Amino acid sequence: MTTKKKQLKLGAFLSVPGNHLAGWRHPDAVPEYDMDFALYMRLAQTAERALYDTIFFQDTVAVGGSDALKAGDLTRTRLSRIVKLEPTATLAALAVGTKNIGLIATATTTFNEPYNIARRFSTIDHISGGRCGWNLVTSQIEDEAGNFNLDTHVDHALRYERAIEFYEVVAGLWDSWEHDAFLRDKESGVWFDRDKMHFLDHHGKYFNVRGPLNSPRTPQGRPVVAQAGSSEPGRELAARTADIVFTAQTELEAAREFFADVKGRTARYGRTPDDIKIMPGITPVIGRTMEEAQEKYDALQALLPDDVALAALARFTRGIDIFSYPLDGPMPDLPEANSAKSRQKLIMDMAKKQNMTLRQVARSVSAAQGHRVLVGTVGYIADQMQEWLEADACDGFNVICNYYPGPFDDFANQVIPELQRRGIFRTAYEGPTLRDNLGLRVPENRHTAARG
Amino acid sequence: MTTKKKQLKLGAFLSVPGNHLAGWRHPDAVPEYDMDFALYMRLAQTAERALYDTIFFQDTVAVGGSDALKAGDLTRTRLSRIVKLEPTATLAALAVGTKNIGLIATATTTFNEPYNIARRFSTIDHISGGRCGWNLVTSQIEDEAGNFNLDTHVDHALRYERAIEFYEVVAGLWDSWEHDAFLRDKESGVWFDRDKMHFLDHHGKYFNVRGPLNSPRTPQGRPVVAQAGSSEPGRELAARTADIVFTAQTELEAAREFFADVKGRTARYGRTPDDIKIMPGITPVIGRTMEEAQEKYDALQALLPDDVALAALARFTRGIDIFSYPLDGPMPDLPEANSAKSRQKLIMDMAKKQNMTLRQVARSVSAAQGHRVLVGTVGYIADQMQEWLEADACDGFNVICNYYPGPFDDFANQVIPELQRRGIFRTAYEGPTLRDNLGLRVPENRHTAARG
């Protein structure tokens, strides 16, 4: 009797022009990966050839660090992720040059209207034939508030309260039309069946939305919903709403705890553990030997000045002046954060556990933004991935690259074949939609369900 | 001495699945043109082969007539333009399958945030290599308000006030970065030149927006701005901000007056008449003879029941119960409108001038939404277009089709070659950007200009 091994899900987190803050300075890096759409398309098509489940774009609706830039801090002119293509327009464009890969973009619930978001992601699902996903976030950085009429950032708890209601409205709008609502019957002249069109009539604390959405039910029922918050309200929101959870996990035991905790919360929302795929980030640094991989990583770190690393860390240290602490002293304690709470906690836990200096913390955060770095041979990296998968620490990984395109191509050409050889990653797409490939059910339209 | 004749600009207004409300019922019509992206792409590529300046999508953020549908009016289940692809995502996707044609989408200033709109259109300009345009509108239909937390529609004057400020913010954000701001210098590690990044720091009645936009200056300096409002504040906003004006004009003299009026207003904003291209809509019905064309039009009209026509007219007759008036009586007077003001005036002027019955007005509006219908041979249609062009009634036309794809293909394959033969339409694109083809200047970045 052969039982099929548990299969990895893989996302390509396209953190262009490189997730490592000095990655773009690598001799092989192409820094134009931040804005050149043809290069984005190249990555998407490479990911599709490698059979990734999905590509994924994070997002912020501001230039990060603009407060500091305004105050005259020139260190930040050495940070690379300043401008980028807006992710939803980018997804729609990438849909045209790809056929199977999933397409997930971030859009904030803090500074958008649910009708607009429901509609845009529905449209991308239609354009892509059922491959679209929405990474639902609450805005994380203070800089964003200033672009949306606010002096200060919205309180963390209120952001989550709004996010939950935002999701309910979006999910409700996605059920505006049953799958067979449109008749387009030339003979009778009837375009649609009124019984299969549904008003939402949502009246809540943050939103009053009548509907119906002016977009039909989508090819995969509705777009996939991803989430990345790992704080207490973030976990609860994920259990309630998410199909995919992106997370930063560096330790096996903590990852297992997170995995069990989030999946364990699903029951109270009438969902099952299999309804959520948990995908921590990993950053591969591949060498022919362990030593060569370490040398590669060291060479990258050598491109990163301490002051740039510290400037990047400052995003997570609001409330104290991180620049006033000695670089080789201990990582100072932080006041409670109002944004990126879980990431901040991860950083502090790592610093305490490993007894790291401020310099070490800053350089580590700049290198991987809190994600796990796997420095080693193809075999070592595959071992680590397999270990976590089989230990129920994850359902798969979000692969994040230090720069583009070299490490991205190397992972696709070297690590993925090894995962396939081990029988833990697909050798062909399971189906045409993102839900097919992730093994997720097509959600029933609530009105069709009520009809019985 | 040969002087080049004044050249037509042509837009393809893709009013899918057909601008004529019964067009989709035509035996040759493909009603799936409302949602099938592959069909949208086919239209865009046909338009590009025909050398159109641009394609254009209108938009509303609601299902039209939802009030009536909610009240149980089943007539509206026979109206075809109920759902559609969201235009900005669609533009981005169409950019990938085209190389030269302009890509213009509508986005409302009433129910969006300027930062999001500035960014999305900037991104599409980057993705398309400088072919993007934004049709700036204020929301026209009452149904939209209910999807955005409002019980009633925003007052007309306030919508325009907000629109002006919205435009100022968007235009300001588009100047956030000078063209040479990004250095990406691996050696020094400097990513961008701080002197060429600019905060907006806008503080207004409707918006407080700090900036900078997280998108660089676009390939054509900034996206083209189109506008379609023809009311008094609409004309003023156009003179101040628009590169293109879409308008509904059915009479030569009125079109000449509109043309002169809008162009005449440009001076007060430091602009010239050439800075605005005025493009009325036309709907062609092409026959090998005039009689055949008329028969085609009559056959189309025969597919349109009176009650469906009346339901469509009701959009422009808020404030009275249009259904209570006798169909063969005179068109009743209307109270002052709060939306689609100029279109309503056009309809009333037409009704009075031609002494039309309610039935005639309803059928005329359903057939062409207030636009001019040219029923005749290729020669007749080209004559009409040339006459208006040479009479300074327009800079070109927005071509609107009763259904797809037949009339669209016929115009491309028959009328455009005739326009080319007459020397009033291009035989090759002038350049890679929409501004190149429209003959519009690339706007200088305000900060680069100030630098001198």
Kindly describe this structure.
2 copies of one chain form a homodimer. By secondary structure, the first copy, chain A, is an alpha/beta fold. The first copy, chain A, has a single domain (9-447), classed as Luciferase-like domain (TIM Barrel, Alpha-Beta Barrel). The first copy, chain A, is 38% helix and 13% strand. An 8-stranded parallel barrel of chain A has the order 1-2-3-4-9-10-11-13, surrounded by 7 helices. Chain A has a two-stranded antiparallel sheet with strand order 5-6. The first copy, chain A, is globular and about 75 Å long. The relative contact order of chain A is 0.16. The mean pLDDT of chain A is 94. Chains A and B meet through α2, α3, α4, β6 and β8 of A and α2, α3, α4, β6 and β8 of B.
